[in-house]
Amino acid sequence: MNLDRPASMSSFWMPFTNNRDFKAHPRLLVSAEGMYYRDVDGNAILDGTAGLWCVPCGHAQPRIVAAVREMVGQLDFAPTFQMGHPAAFDLAEKLMEFTGHRFGHVFYTNSGSESVDTALKMALAYHKARGEPGRTRLIGRERGYHGVGFGGISVGGIATNRKSFGPLLTGVDHLPHTHNLEQNAYTRGEPSFGAHLADELERIVALHDASTIAAVIVEPVAGSTGVLIPPKGYLKRLRELCTKHGILLIFDEVITGFGRMATPFAVDYFDVEPDLMTTAKGLTNGVVPMGAVFTKKHIHDAFIDGPAGIELFHGYTYSGHPLACAAALATLQVFEEQQVLQHAKSIQGYWEDAVHSLKGLPHVIDLRTIGLIAGIELASKPGQVGARAFDAFKTAFADGVLTRTTGDIIALSPPLLFEKQHIDELFGKLTKVLKHLN
Ligand SMILES: Cc1ncc(COP(=O)(O)O)c(C=O)c1O
To answer: Which of 55, 145, 154, 265 to probe ligand 1 with, by most ligand atoms within 8 A of CB?
Structure first.
């Protein structure tokens, strides 16, 4: 394993990266343990973002490492098309328990993007299977992020992720986003203003007619667009309207799933029941790529009660990969043994206080928190949206903390096993960074 600088960095075309800037000023991580990365120069970097929101239990959890090692020696690969292996079935049962049996079935993918495309396809095929093939329209939301597949960017609402890729899926509409700093700045938990924005679905239904709409997809808390927390009552209202019009509701829980809200899923936090739920990331503690789509029983049964034969012509070579299943089973054990959710709950108040202590620092125009998530919104430099937060990210990294930015919002999402001393270190360093930010 190379722990030194690579001889050349020119061939790897890096994703979602300013390649030219990065290669001129690289940030290279070579190892990780617990709450810290180590960079190529040997510096410890406190992980304020759980990798990319995907390492809830911290790095190098011995149980997960051992489970993956054991599985690779025993069953390196097995197809799940027309055959199976025990771990894939065992994991599905354990996942039903982890969701509190809110869902009846789970379909494996390899990423959040694949989970989203899978859920959208299931929604379309479900209506067709029940005799309503005209329900083909998909409704997303402005500022939504649902990965980078054509389905995901079509229902997603981030212009930079859409504008270069042609007409995308047809028959898509978008709800308005719910972000409103005039009304909701500096909130802890759900802001009070904006539940009425769910009623915009009525306008969309009036325009297209409910009989043409298959599904609404939203992130319960939008992460990649800069931590947009749903207004009180918004998600419940969306559920009511979907039920009223026979539209499926999909929650994209790729970042909120597996404990981010100090509950198993955002579904539990908000007590709202979607028909389908997309997940990935924390499912394997980020160790092996894996995603999963959870469905209510009625979705699954609409296929299973259909004609004999393959019920759903969909799946991935690596759906239910043995290493991913081993990592996920071990992750669920770690959640239980190390009381990960209970720990997250116990530090949530301390986390919120630390975030809100940044109020009044230069350029800070909003601080918002929910679960173990924080959004720190900075005023943009005129004509240079994103430049200020990206400067903060670079300085923070040089000072030994990993943050993440989108536009001029710094998003924080630490491993759920963060201790108070880690929170102190993170916000001590961030305060210094923000004080000196241009
Ligand atoms: C809500 C949501 N959906 C989907 C995705 C895409 O996941 P992936 O990058 O694993 O494809 C992400 C990634 O951050 C996400 O936040």
So the answer is: 145
